[in-house]
Amino acid sequence: MRGFISFYRKRILRITEFLVIFLIVPILLFTKVIDVSFFPILLLGAIIFLIQLIRDPSFRLKRLWNWGKARKSIGRIFLYFVPVALLMTLVVYFWEPDHLFYLPRNHPWLWLGLLVSYPLFSVIPQNIAFRAFFVHRYRKLFQSNSTIILASAAMFAFGHIIFHNWLAVILTFIGGILFTKRYIETKSLVASVIEHSLYGVWLFTCGLGMFFTEQVV
């Protein structure tokens, strides 16, 4: 009986933790109850999650790197990326032609800085939170790969409600499926970081970045 109670107590605590981190915090940011920028919270959360993973003996630290598997996946990553990048560019060209390549055309130094800062300060923390930590921490709640991929993608998309537009949510749900699937298949956080960085940098390059700033309301 004690074991039964302990099991369900741990499960309830884990579910509560999940709801607070991935549902309540984004809602508080969206409604401005917590009126601060999203990025300091993301960085702080990623540091806490990384420490938790490092201290967890059941987590294989190799998953944070595993360059061998990441290297083998690069060809497949580009096989997906090239046609999608072309599609993204065409969407901007026909939908918002004035925004096509807006950042490199009008703010080249800002764009070059973004090429470095975005992967380091946004992509890596997001992948620690929504790939490495999420998949390991909540694996037992969702059990199968397909359900945890969908759950991770859904929470990744929900976190983007802070940008106050549906396009950011829809695109990040699709991206979340792709990035989490890549992480699970390769067992390499580096692989998902590379893939996420490609799409994210191109999104800001081609002109869709306007939907991923906290000024969009």
Automatic annotation (TrEMBL):
Keywords: Hydrolase, Membrane, Protease, Transmembrane, Transmembrane helix. One of its GO terms (biological process) is CAAX-box protein maturation. The keyword Secreted does not apply. Residues 109-199 form the CAAX prenyl protease 2/Lysostaphin resistance protein A-like domain. The chain crosses the membrane at residues 12-30, 36-54, 74-95, 110-130, 166-184, 196-213. InterPro entries: Rce1/LyrA-like_dom. GO terms for molecular function: endopeptidase activity. This is CAAX prenyl protease-like protein.
